[in-house]
Amino acid sequence: MKILIVGAGLYGAVLGRALAEAGHQVHFIEKRDHIAGNCCDFVNAHGIRVHRYGPHIFHTSNEKVISYVKRFAEWTPYRHRVRAQLENGIHVPLPVNRETLIHVPADRVIDVFYRPYTKKMWGLSIEELDPSILSRVPITPDAPDDYFPHDTFVGFPLGGYTQFVGEILRHKSISVALSAPYSYGQEEAFDFCFNAMPIDEYFDFQLGRLPYRSIRFHHFDVPAPRMSPFSVINFTHDGPMTRVTEWKNFPDHGEAQNFTSLTFEEPCADHENNYERYYPVKDRAGLNRTLYKSYQALTPSRMKFIGRTGLYAYLDMHQAISSALAVAEEFLTQN
Ligand SMILES: Cc1cc2nc3c(=O)[nH]c(=O)nc-3n(C[C@H](O)[C@H](O)[C@H](O)COP(=O)(O)OP(=O)(O)OC[C@H]3O[C@@H](n4cnc5c(N)ncnc54)[C@H](O)[C@@H]3O)c2cc1C
């Protein structure tokens, strides 16, 4: 079959590779000028690797996903340790554990770590937020100094994520057109279309817009060897930035002698950032999910929506891979 995939992000790439290996011809159209979607990274003028859309830490315990990713890259192991900066400048571990509680009493934990973060990240007060988002950030005094303590595989692809996705796409039956946004009816020249574009955009927003949170990234190159020993520092103040990443503190991300590169993150609504859609907004009443389902019901018969904005779901990289492999398997049993 001739298959069109809209979007050359990780989800589409994994799916496209499986279809190509099964003998189908796969053509990608990608509106950005690069592959790898939001995992895209690059090496800057100081030789430091920067993740263009914020820090991406690959983490999983799924054996199928682990053996899949090892086919396309060597991986540098890493344990992610996040620090929060208190207003007095002291850095404490996150998730909150015993060491954190030495500096912040237990009855202040919500006000110090969650209340300002929730307001900045989601534009909502903690009381308005869907409680399941809060449960993703546990408060446990016994928490180890490790952000992903239960994952057996945490790391970075040697050579970066863009190269990793490039390897997945490197197959004789795959072609990729960059700077090629979807245009209406394009799928008609193909037998089937997998579509990672925002589902509401495909239907020209006829039922309304699905809201997303976005992030403005502020990159700085600083003429100093290092600003802190930590890769990611979350801010607890009520200013607009949520966190800063110091890239060279990740393994294999560059060793510039006299420069360090930092990225600060400022969350905002997607309409305040050129409709860069990062996080689907979960509302407590579930109205956004209902709207998504109404769009999904309109899907043409030879199309399937995929990926974060096609499914309107938060997907980490390992979940995107696992879901893409399952979709490919289902498609291949039927075709
Ligand atoms: C800020 C941020 C931080 C993250 N951190 C982590 C992390 O630490 N660990 C982790 O596991 N995951 C992380 N993720 C998730 C990770 O980015 C995704 O799991 C991964 O990129 C897979 O996404 P995807 O392929 O579904 O979508 P995307 O990466 O969004 O790819 C979709 C592609 O479709 C293209 N597209 C959209 N519309 C059109 C159109 N009209 N025409 C053509 N092309 C189109 C887009 O340009 C994009 O390239 C993070 C995500 C964000 C936003």
Annotate the secondary structure layout.
Layout: E1 2-6, H1 10-21, E2 25-29, E3 41-43, E4 49-51, E5 58-60, H2 63-72, E6 75-77, E7 82-85, E8 91-94, H3 98-103, H4 109-122, H5 131-134, E9 153-157, H6 161-169, E10 174-177, E11 192-195, H7 199-202, E12 212-222, E13 232-235, E14 243-246, E15 260-269, E16 279-280, H8 287-296, E17 303-305, H9 307-311, H10 317-334
Helix pairs in contact: 1-10
The protein binds flavin-adenine dinucleotide.
Structure write-up:
The chain is α/β, with parallel strands linked by helices. The chain has two domains: 2-77 and 159-208 and 284-334, Rossmann fold (3-Layer(aba) Sandwich), CATH 3.40.50.720; 82-149 and 213-272, no CATH class. 27% of the residues lie in helices and 23% in strands. It has helices spanning 10-21, 63-72, 98-103, 109-122, 131-134, 161-169, 199-202, 287-296, 307-311, 317-334; strands spanning 2-6, 25-29, 41-43, 49-51, 58-60, 75-77, 82-85, 91-94, 153-157, 174-177, 192-195, 212-222, 232-235, 243-246, 260-269, 279-280, 303-305. A seven-stranded mixed β-sheet has the order 8-7-13-14-15-12-16. Strands 10-2-1-11-17 form a five-stranded parallel β-sheet. It has a three-stranded antiparallel β-sheet with strand order 5-9-6. β1, α1 and β2 (25-29) form a beta-alpha-beta unit. The relative contact order is 0.22. The mean pLDDT is 94. The structure holds flavin-adenine dinucleotide. Flavin-adenine dinucleotide (FAD) binds next to α1, α9 and α10.
